[in-house]
Amino acid sequence: MKRTGHAVWNGDLKTGKGALTTGSGVLKDTQYGFKTRFEDEPGANPEELIGAAHAGCYSMALSMILGEHDLVADEIRTQADVHLDKSDDGFEITAVDLKVRARIPDASSDEFQKDAEAAKTGCPVSKLLKAKISLDAELL
């Protein structure tokens, strides 16, 4: 299985503009630039896309693990905060904070914490990222 993303960049770093497109077409020529990435201008940036990918992957991994214990979530809501920090070598993603809130009938808090942790280490995006990944999991 292979999934594809495309990026086009025109111009210099600070005033240039780029566009992101996914192979599925969900994103098509979605604009991004210096200000959307390093300042607070609204718009797309690679880090929020990584966050969305990680949150989606994590939620699916948790759902799979719950199913192995005959549990089905009414809802799994995951947020991934991706930290982009300046270092001696430029910028780097230093951490991802996962925050999951889930409604799972018949789940115990202890089992949920074990499953949440297993999903954190088992999801393919977690395996890809080398940054420290923290988790805050709460069963509602």
What does this protein look like?
This protein is an alpha+beta fold and 140 residues long. The chain has 2 domains: 5-38, no CATH class; 46-139, GMP Synthetase, Chain A, domain 3. Helices cover 34% and strands 36% of the residues. It has helices at 34-38, 46-68, 109-122, 124-128; strands at 5-10, 17-22, 30-33, 75-87, 90-103, 132-139. The chain has a 3-stranded antiparallel β-sheet. Strands 4-5-6 form a 3-stranded mixed β-sheet, with helices on one face.
> By helix and strand content, what is the structural category?
alpha+beta
Give the N-to-C terminal Cα separation. Answer: 35 Å
Provide the spatial order of strands within the biggest beta sheet.
1-2-3
Helix segment count?
4
What CATH architecture of the largest domain do you see?
Answer: 2-Layer Sandwich
What is the C-alpha radius of gyration, as a whole number of Å? 17 Å
| Main sheet makeup | 3 strands, antiparallel
The first-level CATH class of the largest domain is given as Alpha Beta
CATH superfamily of the largest domain: K homology (KH) domain
Give the ordered list of helices and strands. EEEHHEEHHE
Choose one word for the global shape.
elongated
User: Uncertain spans, ≥5 residues at pLDDT below 50?
Assistant: none
Give the rounded overall mean pLDDT: 94
Give the proportion of residues in helices.
Answer: 25-40%
Number of individual domains: 2
Secondary structure: elements and pairs:
Blueprint: E1 5-10, E2 17-22, E3 30-33, H1 34-38, H2 46-68, E4 75-87, E5 90-103, H3 109-122, H4 124-128, E6 132-139
Parallel strand pairs: 5-6
Antiparallel strand pairs: 1-2, 2-3, 4-5
Helix pairs in contact: 2-3
